[in-house]
Design brief:
heterodimer; A: mainly alpha; 8 helices; 84% helix; globular; B: mainly alpha; transmembrane (chain A); membrane (chain A); transmembrane helix (chain A); Heme exporter protein CcmB (chain A)
Chain lengths: 216, 232
């Protein structure tokens, strides 16, 4: 546990020291949503919802991709010897989940400002956005580890990730639809639980498989 | 497995079962209710003996591929990696065939080749996943690393894909049998399969799976011979 906290602290410090990456992603979010605004103006709710989650997907690929690519081979070996692979992947998963939740909230704010506000139930939607950002980041963090191992960038991550992320995205769209109107979705909590279960599955797979990935 | 590759009995069994599938599948009387009275399936229903078993055998083959990927991670022997690759490859080919036969059938009964049915989507996703698997493999040159990273992705993808095909059909309505309303069925609409059809269907599943295995083992033997030639 101490190792995990130390590793997250290290990631945080790096993020604070090299702020250009953080601002880079923020700028990425701002400019994508601005372009969307110019192209679509203020779309109806269904389109709004779809666009929002698609943008989350792209933000996630970009925000998470660097998490493994920035570490050099030597530094990896160092972490591996002092902390062990499991602690390392857990710290990355947690850190990226936090990062992605912040990014999702920022993009939600920008969406509200530029693309209009069709939300009837904003608090619920914010909850879904946090959960969604978390779910997306988990899958892409592990894929980033694979892509980094293959010495490839975000392109390979997208190829590998987009088919795999479909269940999460569909579940998210389905549950966030309920935040736009006073409709009652049958089994809403079942869907939320299903998504949480998928997240747990992804974490378990990552923890089991990561040591094999980094063994040299 | 090593010993089974060279055995003949299961290859003969595969031929017999597939001959049976083709003959019985094209000749047996179809259940009047499901084929004529309540639907527009008519004789196209016979595609059921070809299209669905292809899917089943794709699942069987990618499961075998998963098995060898796990085996590779536990004991990094390059042979296991070749097994995993070849089974995934044949599985993908059968998936393509399943998709094509399904689309042709869909065109006759649902009016269009592609109608965004959850099972069609699931099928397309499987193809994308396994094509990504081969792209990932080919992006690395170091043999040892390639095998390990590919095995990790194979396992990760499989365990996300299986829940996916269980979840997807339940989220939206499906045109497939058993897909009305919210009780979307990930497999077959169990009740729509009558006793005579079952007698052809399950042998067909085994036949196609064995044929897929056979093709995989043939490719495998070629690969192993190549390896031997290179190392000699």
């Amino acid at each position: 546990m101490n190792h995990i906290i130390a590793l997250i602290k290290k990631d945080l410090l790096l993020e604070i020291r090299q702020q250009y990456t953080f601002y880079g992603i923020l700028l990425y979010i701002a400019s994508t949503i601005f372009v969307l605004y110019l192209a679509m103006n203020q779309p109806e709710e269904k389109v709004w919802n779809g666009l929002f989650w698609m943008i989350q997907l792209f933000i996630c690929v970009n925000a998470v991709a660097k998490s493994f690519l920035q570490e050099s081979q030597g530094r990896m070996l160092y972490f591996y010897t002092i902390a062990g692979a499991r602690d390392f992947i857990l710290s990355k998963l947690l850190f990226n989940a936090g990062l992605m939740i912040i990014m999702s909230l920022v993009s939600l704010l920008l969406f509200q400002l530029l693309m209009g506000n069709p939300l009837q139930n904003p608090i619920r939607f914010i909850g879904f956005v946090c959960l969604g950002g978390c779910s997306l980041s988990l899958v892409f963090t592990f894929l980033a580890a694979i892509a980094a191992r293959a010495r490839q960038g975000a392109a390979l991550m997208a190829i590998m990730g987009f088919p795999l992320i479909i269940p999460q995205v569909l579940l998210l769209m389905k549950m966030s639809n309920t935040a736009f109107a006073d409709i009652i979705q049958v089994g809403l909590w079942q869907i939320v639980l299903l998504l949480v279960a998928l997240d747990v599955l992804v974490i378990a797979l990552a923890v089991i498989l990561f040591p094999f990935l980094w063994k040299d | 497995m090593q010993a089974l590759i060279h055995r003949k009995w299961w290859k003969i069994l595969s031929i017999v079962l597939l001959l049976y599938t083709f003959i019985a599948g094209l000749l047996i009387p179809l259940p009047y209710e499901t084929a004529y009275a309540n639907s527009n399936l008519y004789e196209s229903m016979r595609n059921f003996f070809f299209h669905v078993p292809m899917w089943f055998s794709q699942l069987v083959l990618i499961s075998v591929s998963l098995f060898y990927s796990i085996k590779y991670l536990r004991n990094p022997d390059p042979i296991y990696d070749i097994y995993a690759t070849e089974f995934a490859r044949t599985g993908t080919v059968l998936g393509c065939l399943g998709l094509i036969t399904g689309s042709i059938w869909a065109n006759y009964t649902w009016g269009t080749y592609w109608s965004n049915d959850p099972k069609q989507t699931g099928a397309a996703i499987a193809l994308l996943i396994y094509i990504a698997y081969f792209v990932l493999r080919n992006s690395m040159t170091d043999m040892d690393k390639r095998s390990r990273v590919a095995a990790v992705y194979n396992i990760f993808a499989y365990f996300i894909y299986i829940p996916m095909i269980l979840i997807l059909p339940r989220l939206t309505e499906s045109l497939h049998p058993g897909g009305k309303g919210t009780e979307g069925n990930p497999g077959l609409g169990g009740s729509s399969l009558d006793a005579t059809m079952r007698l052809v269907f399950w042998p067909a599943v085994i036949g196609w799976s064995l044929l897929g295995t056979w093709i995989s083992t043939l490719r495998l033997r070629v690969r192993l011979l190549e390896e031997k030639k290179h190392s000699a």
